[in-house]
Amino acid sequence: MEEIIKNIEKMVVITAKKRQRDNLYFVTTGKDQAIPVITYLRDYEGFSHFVMLSVADWMEEGEFELMYLLNHPVKKVDIGVCVRIPRENASMHTAHHLWEQIWSYQRELKEMYGIDFPGSPRVDESFLLEGWDQIPPMRREFDTLKYAEETYFPRPGRETHDPATYMKQKLYPNE
Amino acid sequence: MSEKKQFIDPDLQPRTVIGPNGEEIQINPLEDYFCSERPKVHEPKRWKIFEDFVNWARAESIWVLGFGTGCGSIELYPLLTPRFDAYRFGVQMRPTPRQANLMIISGYLSVKTLKRAIRSYEQMQNPKYVMALGSCTINGGMYFDSYNTINRLDKYMPVDVYVAGCMPRPEAILAGFNALKAKIKEGRAEGANEYAKNFDYYKANQKKIIKDWNMPDYNW
After folding, report:
1. DSSP per position, B101-117
2. Which of A37, A86, A92, B37 is paired with B59 by a 20 to 30 Å CA distance?
3. What Cα–Cα distance (Å) separates residue B29 from each residue in A50, B5, B18, B78?
4. What residue spans define the domains of chain B?
5. What are the chain B neighbours of A155 within 8 Å (beta carbons)?
6. 3-class SS of residue A170
7. Phi, psi of B82 (to 5 degrees)
8. Cα–Cα distance between A144 and A158 in angstroms, integer?
9. Which residues of A touch B211 (CB under 8 A)?
């Protein structure tokens, strides 16, 4: 595993690397280098199984972190290729030519986070939110509770109480 | 987001067809698919004894639309096994809305599913009933703060029976069937008429959250 990461370091600049456990490593690289690294891992190192594409929203730092998780079915090891992209007008190169199923991840990320993947099939079609007119709902600045209260007729009586103080008020109101 | 998809195929233009005897028949496909009329209130029978008899008969024929919306639908399948045996209560599953008279909303409803549920409900024939399972349909349950699931089902369609629980066991659903049957026999299960009377209220609530409303107001 260390050797594979050394091979990657010979190709591109790796800004961070992390060993989670013996069979799981993470490397962070730039936006333009990520797809070549993934292609290299698939074609030369044998990471033939694509596990998932996920995103973390680092709102305070103004960045999204995309993570492509790949699996080596023979060596039983995983490697996550991480990419940091800016949140404003977020855009990333599409990777659906490597594994076809990536287009559905990319379509979902476009809808839920507003990350564009130019060239990805059907990326502009709505996935779950038909006719959504707010900011993408999984972005952290979206106040989902406020939106739900304004939109979905909350039933009164849902307020919660601290059991100790509530019982005290009910049982011993004069103390 | 992409441009709105047309629910109705724009190519379905009115056309003229020559019949077997050479006569010309005007066909408007939209009129075949949808009716533009609003739902009507069905008055009860003039004599109460007849209405009671009809209600008794209705209560013994609960045909459920097989439409599972959330985690609760997994609790519906054991009902049809010998262990719980819903058939002994006159309850059976039907595959299409036009054959069913009870719609079970089995759990949380996302907005996307609500649109389909409303369509299915409107396609069911009168008299029709709605049973809502689980706390998600009552007050939103654990999804009360979700951006995409409704909180109260009774704002969008009239609900006859709620079955509380997260999720209700099949025994609870059987109790719900019995409560619904008692309500029908008393003549209080008037959900379809309520929907017709307050049609504008329900439509306004539905259109408030279904932003790409691209179908007729009432389609059956």
Report:
1. SEEEEES--BHHHHHHH
2. B37
3. 47, 19, 16, 41
4. 48-209
5. 138-140, 151-152
6. helix
7. -60, -25
8. 17
9. 130-133
Fold of A2-171: Beta Polymerase; domain 2 (3.30.460)
Q: Does B25 touch chain A (CB under 8 A)?
A: no
Q: Which of A128, A129, A158 sits opposite B139 (nearest CB)?
A: A158
- The single-letter code of the amino acid at B94 is R
Closest residue in B to A116 (Cα) is B1
Enter the ipTM. Answer: 0.81
Domain B48-209: give its CATH code: 3.40.50.12280
Q: Going by C-beta distance under 8 Å and a sequence separation of 6 or more, which residues neighbour residue A123? A: A94, A103, A106, A107, A110, A116, A117
| Total number of residues shown for chain A | 175
Portion 103-122 of B in contact with A at CB < 8 A = 110-112, 115
Each domain of chain A, given as residue ranges in start order, spans 2-171
Predicted model pTM:
0.85
